[in-house]
Amino acid sequence: MNTEIVDFGNIKTGMEDKILLEKVKNIFRKISSAAIRSERNPFDVKLIAVTKTVPFDRIKVAIDLGLRIFGENRVQEAQDKISDCRLHCIDCDIEWHLIGNLQKNKAKSAVQLFDLIHSLDSAELAALLNKHAERAGKIQRVLIEVKLSEEETKHGIAKEHLMDFIEAVSAMKHLKLEGLMTMPPFFDMTEKARPFFRELRELRDKAEKEGYRLPELSMGMTNDYEVAILEGATMVRIGTGIFGERR
Ligand SMILES: *Cc1c(COP(=O)(O)O)cnc(C)c1O
């Protein structure tokens, strides 16, 4: 733990580390409390620390504080950080997740880099990931991104096509479908995001009734992760809440 950093050459770094520690502790506290309120085990909710725009030296501090799962939204940006991580943290058992939209021409790199891809949103992409995973001798873990809002900027499979897509992805031998992900629109009032989270859980429950196993629900960000947990989130993706405002 980096709580007692006394480095007179760089006092600022020590302060920033303390702030990071306080933020992380606060988030774990809120995650636990939301999980308990919804009668779930706090250990069933995983914190994905979102590190887009965050340089590796800050990520290293987060690793030293005990964080183990990191999320990036761009393959290109993640590449160097993941190599740095493999170089500097050999035994730390870090997971890297791709949470942003994945372009087809990056599918191969994504398979090489990421433990879990949250943003599977088309049959073509599924086929490509399956092919590259087979070549790499890997079973690629994936989540299907579901588009529940009308916003143009949001990606994902329309809910009308979800069941067919789940069936298709489940049949792919080198993909392991673990659940669903969504991004509701941004609201000042977090309660307004709640129906979107509930809808994702209901879609998952429906698929499970059809015999699919989809334990993971990736939903909730800095602004709304507590309500997401109350609606069943098992993975919350938090960036600014940990690392501060992005530049
Ligand atoms: C940036 C990002 C997040 C984290 O957002 P914050 O509001 O900073 O917590 C979560 N999910 C996705 C897909 C993102 O791109």
How many strand units? 9
- The SSE string, one letter per element, is HEHEHEHEHEEHEHEHEH
The CATH class name reads Alpha Beta
Helix coverage percent: 40-55%
CATH architecture, by name, is Alpha-Beta Barrel
pLDDT averaged residue by residue: 93
Q: Please give the domain count.
A: 1
CATH superfamily: Alanine racemase
Distance between termini?
A: 27 Å
User: What structural category characterises the helix and strand content?
Assistant: alpha/beta
Bound molecules: pyridoxal-5'-phosphate
Question: How many H/I helical runs?
Answer: 9
Radius of gyration: 18 Å
Q: Per the principal axes of the C-alpha atoms, what is the gross shape? A: globular
In CATH terms, what is the fold-level topology? TIM Barrel
How much of the polypeptide forms β-strand, as a percent range?
Answer: 15-25%
Main β-sheet: number of strands, strand sense, barrel status? 9 strands, parallel
How would you sum up this structure in a few lines?
Helices cover 43% and strands 17% of the residues.
Structural features, described:
The chain has 247 residues and is of the alpha/beta class. It has a single domain, classed as TIM Barrel (Alpha-Beta Barrel). 43% of the residues lie in helices and 17% in strands. The protein contains nine helices and nine strands. Strands 1, 2, 3, 4, 5, 6, 7, 8 and 9 form a nine-stranded parallel β-sheet that branches. Strand 1, helix 2 and strand 2 form a beta-alpha-beta unit. Helix 4 packs across helix 5. The longest helix has 27 residues. The radius of gyration is 18 Å and the shape is globular. The two termini are 27 Å apart. The N terminus is likely disordered. The structure holds pyridoxal-5'-phosphate. Pyridoxal-5'-phosphate binds next to strand 9 and helix 9.
